[in-house]
Amino acid sequence: MDEQRVRGGGPPRWWGRRDGVDRGADRWPWRSTALMTVFVLAGSQFAAHKQGADRAHLDLFARLLLVTGSGLLLWRKRYPVLVVFGTATAAMVYLGAGYPYGPVFLTVALGCLSAVAAGHRKAAWAAVGMLWAGHVLIGHWLYRWLPPSGDEAASWGQEIVVTAWVAAIVAVAELVRVRREQWDRERAERALAARRRADEERLRIARELHDVLAHSISVINVQAGVGLALLDSDPEQARTALTTIKAASKEALGEVRQVLDTLRTPGDAPRAPAPGLDRLPDLVEQAAGAGLSVEVRGAVPKLPPGADLAAFRIVQEALTNVVRHSGSRHARVRVDADAADGALRLCVDDDGPATGADAGGSGNGLAGMRERAAALGGTIEAGPRADGGFRVLAVLPLTVKGDR
Asked: Which residues contact 233 (CB under 8 A, 6 or more apart)?
């Protein structure tokens, strides 16, 4: 079964990946870069009118710096580290030349967000820290040698505003990082849950196929031996064996087809109801066809679908093991539903003796029974009895939470 694909959730495409490889890196962000460039130019022109007396006039060099800082954002998906340092450098030169404060910081903010989204957190911090340190040096020391002429040291109020901008950029970038890590964890958890569900489904199908095929093929094997032995001496009895083989193989094909249908159309309802303890008479009849006499004691209770199927498969596997591995031709099935403690007890006994070392059945068969019981919160005890026979005792809850 192919691993299920995990859908839903996760960050937007334009945020890229933490490993630095963007999902949309093969596309250039022309539109957003053009809009940012126009906004920065227009906003800076408006800021120049408001700050004209205190800052240098916007000339060709200023506009080149603004276009360069905004234009670098075109490469923010491919080279986020170079872009964040480039936008910070362009902004620092712009402020060092005495040009007006304005939306030039937005290019740095977007470059920083892109670098953090690509997993380059330290580089983003370093670039923003470089811009802040450069502004402090320019505003409190280098202003004597930089335009505009006659400029004075920056006020601490202005420094607080710039520091607030830098802090806001860092805070938003960290918020992006934290949220992205949450998305990564959620995606990993969904992928793990999907793999777990796929493994559980594979295990369920393996158990179903094992139980169906092991029981039916055991009956077919026994009847084929009878038919071969009596083909010449008792043709009528050989015909009966062949009839049993045909019925057993037909039933096995039907159940295998039902299991395979769930693989082809996993969301559709099954075409036939899953077998339950109400089919115990069919098991008794099939066992009789294999030469095994089965005595059933106790009334079959009303069970949830999952518990009913598990109970049927456990009894089926236990009787199959008697046919294959026990010298006894008689088995007893006892069904006891105890409403007081909310448990169903299934006991399958045979009188032995064992015909091989694996008297209780194959490892897969017993493991499958235990897995079925454990999945419902029940238990399985299987082992030889003191009088030489073999017993399988299953205890299943009458009420199963979340039974589908």
From this structure: none
